[in-house]
Write a structure and sequence with these properties.
This protein is α+β, with helices and mostly antiparallel strands and 139 residues long. It has one domain: Structural Genomics Hypothetical 15.5 Kd Protein In mrcA-pckA Intergenic Region, Chain A. It contains six helices and seven strands. The strands form two sheets. The protein has a five-stranded antiparallel sheet with strand order 3-2-5-6-7. A two-stranded antiparallel sheet has the order 1-4. Strand 5 and strand 6 form a beta hairpin. The radius of gyration is 22 Å and the shape is elongated.
């Protein structure tokens, strides 16, 4: 029976799977959604595409895209459990430029909603009827 080296345990705790960290930091609701985003090229580690099992540590730079928002962050801490949002926000630091761009996008979308500018959505009942009327071929 072999004994585990405590130095190896501490080294292992300084690294964490990318998909698990994204889930714990509350960027994605489930690990499966995090995996799909990583595989889809929506998450970059240190400027390069990564795989879900990529080990990351404190100081890693991540670029996360969830349309229409984009985060440029640096990993500040590792957490294996999903904690409340206030605690999850302490796991990373976001660049000032990224925060400004995201806040501008939020303000723009809010403005569009208030002005009644239609967003990309499913057609309502009236619009569906017009579409069906347009597509109907009378012979």
């Amino acid at each position: 029976m072999s004994r585990r080296d405590p130095a190896q345990d501490s080294a292992a705790s300084e690294r964490m799977r990318l998909d698990k960290w994204l889930w714990a930091a509350r960027f994605f609701k489930t690990r499966q959604l995090a995996i799909e985003a990583i595989n889809g090229g929506k998450v970059h580690v240190n400027g390069q595409r990564a795989k879900p099992g990529k080990d990351i540590g404190v100081g890693a730079r991540l670029s996360i895209t969830k349309e229409p928002y984009r985060w440029e962050i640096t990993v500040a801490a590792l957490q294996t459990q999903r904690r409340p949002a206030a605690e999850a926000a302490l796991l990373y630091t976001e660049t000032e430029e990224s925060q400004v761009k995201r806040q501008e996008e939020v303000a723009r979308r809010r403005e569009e909603r208030e002005l009644g500018i239609p967003t990309e959505s499913r057609p309502n009942k009236r619009e569906r009827r017009l579409i069906h009327r347009f597509k109907r071929i009378d012979t």
